[in-house]
Design a protein that fits this description.
With 175 residues, the chain is of the alpha+beta class. The chain has helices spanning 21-30, 54-69, 80-88, 112-118, 153-156, 164-174; strands at 2-8, 12-14, 17-18, 34-38, 44-49, 75-79, 100-105, 126-130, 133-137, 159-163. The chain is globular and about 45 Å long.
Length: 175
């Protein structure tokens, strides 16, 4: 069995209605994944499964989510080993845990994405791509910066944001 991390892009079903983590764990078990556990209430789940390509697991989880909750959602999956590598690859480990954000990508970004995003960034913000994922040190509250509005699926492809605290928390759960 292999450990996997699945990140849901958005778990808001309707105004005032979010996915309950116990329902998410039940959904994972329902499609045959073992030992599902979640971290905080933002759509992070770790589970064990027979080794399979991430794309197959993403498709299976997305179909199960749509069936159970009646709404489509993008899900990005990484093996546990790949997640630990992602956590080690943080180019801004000294940054404030809630201000350093990674956009975990389904398909890797290339360096040209940095050029496209720099026009939205303030001088105090740092951007880097590591193994195809976009890291940002917002140097302040992310909600106050215009860069956040540029991080859309339409512009960048399927991906989802997690802060450094969440990245570390998931890594600890895998250990």
């Amino acid at each position: 069995m292999v450990s996997y991390v699945a990140l849901l892009h958005s778990i808001v079903l309707a105004p005032g209605r979010r996915v309950v983590m116990s329902d998410l764990r039940d959904m994972a078990e329902g499609v045959g994944y073992s030992n599902p556990r979640t971290l905080v209430s933002t759509g992070n789940i770790i589970f064990e499964a027979t080794a399979a390509p991430a794309g197959e697991i993403e498709a299976k989880l997305e179909a199960a989510f749509r069936e159970k909750f009646g709404k489509p959602v993008d899900i990005v999956v990484r093996s546990g080993a790949d997640w630990l590598d992602l956590a080690k690859a943080n180019p801004f480990p000294e940054g404030e845990g809630s201000q350093v954000i990674v956009r975990v990508m389904r398909n890797p970004l290339d360096r040209s994405a940095l050029d496209a995003l720099r026009k939205y960034a303030y001088a105090s913000q740092r951007l880097a791509i590591s193994s195809g994922d976009l890291w940002i040190d917002f140097a302040g509250r992310p909600s106050e910066w215009r860069l956040l509005s540029a991080l859309t699926t339409k512009r960048m492809g399927v991906g989802t944001l997690r802060n450094w605290n969440t990245v570390r928390g998931l890594a600890e759960m895998l250990r």
